[in-house]
Amino acid sequence: TQLLEQSPQFLSIQEGENLTVYCNSSSVFSSLQWYRQEPGEGPVLLVTVVTGGEVKKLKRLTFQFGDARKDSSLHITAAQPGDTGLYLCAGPPGTGGGNKLTFGTGTQLKVEL
Amino acid sequence: DAGVIQSPRHEVTEMGQEVTLRCKPISGHNSLFWYRQTMMRGLELLIYFNNNVPIDDSGMPEDRFSAKMPNASFSTLKIQPSEPRDSAVYFCASTTGASYEQYFGPGTRLTVT
Questions:
Q1: Given CB 3.0 to 4.6 Å as the disulfide criterion, which of A65, A71, B27, B34 pairs with A24?
Q2: Does A42 contact B91 at a Cβ distance shorter than 8 Å?
């Protein structure tokens, strides 16, 4: 079973601060995705990274896929209260898994004024 | 376009009662996933369908849980009999067969007393 461990589990910061969330595995993933889930809603896809070493930017969010495709990070610059939510990484669990995903353990982010 | 639709949004029932959760995937999506989310266990895949056929039900916790997809636009997840430990938020998600990018519904919050 390919597990995705996220750290930190919880993060509470002030508006304007920077933060990084990590997603780690001992297994290689063909791609990794990041989702954000707001209270009372389902997860929403933010980005997919496919190539080892790839960096993608989405406004103040920067996503990186590790060179060995075993880990990924999400960096938020100048966090805002609207960034509050549960961040989940996810990836396809290897060959034979169809198009299902394994989801990470999640990072709960709270950004306060 | 309408997203994934789930009903009901909230369900409160007594232990031993039958519960049926409903999902309408995005039109044109041929893969459908049922997840359960709790604080303790995070987001867990219960079962998924491709072209209305169940592909992997290894995540279904026990025989009390069953899922059907009679056509491309409708799926149900049934719990009979329900138990307090089934209390969770249940999500349905859909995607095209060629993609790992899943689109989630708003979830059904189930409380079994």
A1: A71
A2: yes
Q: Which residue from B65, B69, B68 is spatially nearest to B110, judged by alpha carbons?
A: B65
Edge to edge, what strands does the sheet with A55-58 contain?
A5-7, A19-24, A71-76, A61-65, A55-58
Decide: A61 and A12 in contact? Cβ < 8 Å.
no
Q: Quick check: B100 and A103 CB within 8 A?
A: no
Please give the residue of chain B at the shortest CA–CA distance from A38: B106
| Phi, then psi, of A55 in degrees rounded to 5 | -125, 130
Structure tokens at B58: 């290894």
pLDDT in tens, B38-47: 999 999 999 9
pLDDT 10s digits, A65-110? 999 999 999 999 999 999 999 999 999 976 666 778 999 999 999 9
